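Amino acid chain
________________
===
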Amino acid sequence: MTLSHFPPTADPAEVSDHLRRFGYAIVDDVADAAAMDQLEAEALPYIEASDAGRDEYDGRFTRRTGALVARCPTARQLVMDPFVVDTVSNFLGHVSAVQLHLTQIISVEPGETRQKLHRDEMAFDFFPFDADYHVQCNTMWALTDFTAENGATHILASTSGIGDDEAIRMPDAQAEMRRGSVLFYEGKVLHGAGANTSSRVRRGVNITYAVGWVRQEENQYLACPPDIARTLDDDLLRMMGYTQGAFALGYVGDQTDPLAALRGGTAKAKTIGTVAEFNESAREFVTDIDDLGH
């Protein structure tokens, strides 16, 4: 089986549709070599200081290096890449707000074995989200070329809405892609890093987004200290979670806007959706409950 690739000129809506139908999409050559070189130079001291995984799932020859917003200015460009943000916003368009969930460079070193297949959505305490409700959208940027030999990610396409016993029998393919390309994959699709049988490390930049009302996998408010956060632009800060995640979620103190609180102000938090819309939703919920009782 061969996985589908899109050019960097593709319509984000088209990529999002493919992601929704098959659980993944690969877009070639989104970032240029200069950006990848700069990011790798910024990250390398932190990568070298990162410990290898504790078990076979984490990878005993795999290093995971996080806090990229604080540590690597170039990573901020990837987080807010317009094509990626448009694709993610389209895919997660069923919610009021989208937030940054995780930033991490995954370095799969020579000798690493294949990772166990899994679904990333399990991180939410194995909550049984409906098959058609997506809670996250992941990206994996190729910081090095991704090849079958160096451990390119295995994807079992179209496994998002089916049980594990059936899913494990679906065709398996690796997301081979050039440096600077990006793999989109959602939280329900079975996937896992490949074995690295080559002589060189395989590095990918895992930047994940989630709906605004869940807890983030990486705590962005501690991973990026406030003194650094205050130097960042407002759009990036909102993506990191300095905004309300839904109606009445995420304000500070006396309903202060989180971005204003970070900046030292006291502006009231903005309502996501109108009170009328919230009240209407509440009435519909109560009506549904009443109907169940009759």
